[in-house]
Design goal:
Length: 350
C-alpha cells in the first residue's frame, strides 16, 4: 500500500475514532496518538524520504490537510463534549425554587423570665421602680442588716455558698432592702421598688428545691404605710397573676425582718377551693411571705421608724411558674431542655 493510500486510510479511520470518543480524556489521548510527536501521522510521514521529488510536495500537502482536518475535528469533538458536560452539570444543579426553605428556629424568653416580666409590668404600672441587686453580697448585708444576727437560728434555713469568710451568694433578695432604703430620699416621695433576681441556697436539690432560684422582693416605705396597703397590693397582684376570681388569705407567720409577718395564700385556681392535687386538698396555695418592715431594719438603714413605716414581700417566680403551668419539678427550669422550654411560648403565657 503506498503512502498516499495509507494517509487516506488513516484520515478515514481517525474520523470514526474521533466520532466514537465519549470523554474529554479520550479525545486528548486520541490527539496524542494521531498527531503527537510519536503519533501515527508522524510515523507515516517518516516514509516521505522514500518518495520521489515530484511526489513529495503532493503527499506533504495531503498530510498537512489531513493534520489540519483532524486537528479541527478533535477540537470540535472536544467542544461538543465540554458543552455536553456543562449542560449536564447545569441540569443537575438546577435550584428548585418551589422547595420549602430551611426555617430558622426562634428562641423565646425563658418561662421564669416571662413570669418575672409579667410581675415587672404589673408593678411598673403601680408606680414602682425596678432595681437589680448584686448576687454576691456580704454576710452582713444578707443577714445582719435584715435583722438576722450572727447566731440567729433563721440562718440555718438559709445556708449558702460562701465566697470567703465575709461574702456569699445572696440567699434572699431581701438583701437589697438595706441599700435601697438607705439610698432613698424620702423628701422626694415614697419608696416603691421591686427587685427581681437570682438567689442561692445550699439546699439539697429535689423536686421543689434548687440551689439556685429566683425571687422578687417588693419594698414600700413612706409615712403612714399600714398593713392594709400591703394586703391591698398583694390582692391586686394575686388576681392579676392567678385570675380575677381568686381570693387571698393572710396567715400570721414569722420572718426576722418583718413585724408582724404574714404568709399569703390564694384560693386554688384549679379546683377553686374544693381541694385537688395542686393545692394538696387544702383549697389554698401558699404564694409568698410578707410583712411590715421591722423597725430595726429601718433604723439600721438610717430611717426614723417612729415617722416612717413600710411593707415588704418576697415572692418566688419559679414557684409561681410551677403553679401556673402545673410543672411538678423545679429542676426542669434549669436543664435547658428545648422540648420542655419551647412549650412556654410568650403567647401561651398570656
Ligand atoms: N426573704 C424571705 C425568704 O427568702 C422571703 C420574704 C419574706 C421576703 C417576707 C420579705 C418578707 O420581704 O417580708 O424566705
Amino acid at each position: 500500500m503506498d503512502l498516499k493510500t495509507k494517509l487516506e486510510e488513516l484520515a478515514q479511520t481517525s474520523v470514526t475514532r474521533i466520532e466514537e470518543s465519549t470523554s474529554l480524556k479520550d479525545v486528548e489521548n486520541l490527539r496524542v496518538q494521531l498527531l503527537g510527536k510519536k503519533g501515527e501521522l508522524t510515523d507515516l510521514l517518516k516514509m516521505m524520504k522514500d518518495l520521489t521529488k515530484e511526489e513529495r510536495p503532493v503527499i506533504g500537502k495531503l498530510a498537512n490537510e489531513i493534520r489540519d482536518d483532524l486537528t479541527t475535528k478533535l477540537a470540535d469533538k472536544k467542544e461538543e463534549l465540554e458543552e455536553e458536560a456543562l449542560n449536564k452539570q447545569l441540569q443537575e444543579e438546577t435550584i428548585d425554587v418551589t422547595l420549602p426553605g430551611r426555617t430558622v428556629k426562634k428562641g423565646q424568653t425563658h418561662i421564669i423570665h416571662q413570669v418575672m416580666e409579667q410581675m415587672e409590668d404589673l408593678f411598673l404600672g403601680m408606680g414602682y421602680n425596678i432595681i437589680e441587686g448584686s448576687e454576691i453580697v456580704s454576710d452582713y448585708l444578707n443577714f445582719e442588716r435584715v435583722n438576722v444576727p450572727q447566731d440567729h437560728p433563721a440562718r440555718d434555713m438559709q445556708d449558702s455558698f460562701y465566697i470567703n469568710e465575709h461574702y456569699l451568694l445572696r440567699t434572699q433578695t431581701s438583701a437589697v432592702q438595706p441599700l435601697v432604703i438607705e439610698a432613698h430620699d424620702f423628701t422626694k416621695g415614697p419608696l416603691k421598688v421591686i427587685s427581681p433576681g437570682k438567689v442561692y441556697r445550699r439546699d439539697s436539690d429535689d423536686a421543689t428545691h434548687s440551689h439556685q432560684f429566683h425571687q422578687i422582693e417588693g419594698i414600700v416605705v413612706d409615712e403612714g404605710i399600714t398593713m392594709s396597703d400591703l394586703m391591698g397590693t398583694l390582692e391586686v397582684m394575686s388576681k392579676k397573676i392567678f385570675g380575677a376570681d381568686r381570693v387571698v388569705r393572710f396567715r400570721p407567720s414569722y420572718f426576722p425582718f418583718t413585724e408582724p409577718s404574714v404568709e399569703v395564700d390564694v384560693s386554688c385556681f384549679k379546683c377553686n377551693g374544693a381541694g385537688c392535687n395542686i393545692c394538696k386538698k387544702s383549697g389554698w396555695i401558699e404564694i409568698l411571705g410578707a410583712g411590715m418592715i421591722h423597725p430595726n431594719v429601718l433604723e439600721m438603714s438610717n430611717v426614723d421608724s417612729t415617722k416612717y413605716s413600710g411593707f415588704a414581700f418576697g415572692v418566688g417566680p419559679d414557684r409561681m411558674a410551677m403553679l401556673q403551668y402545673g410543672v411538678d419539678d423545679i429542676r426542669q427550669f434549669y436543664m435547658n431542655d428545648q422540648r420542655f422550654l419551647s412549650q412556654f411560648s410568650k403567647e401561651g403565657a398570656e
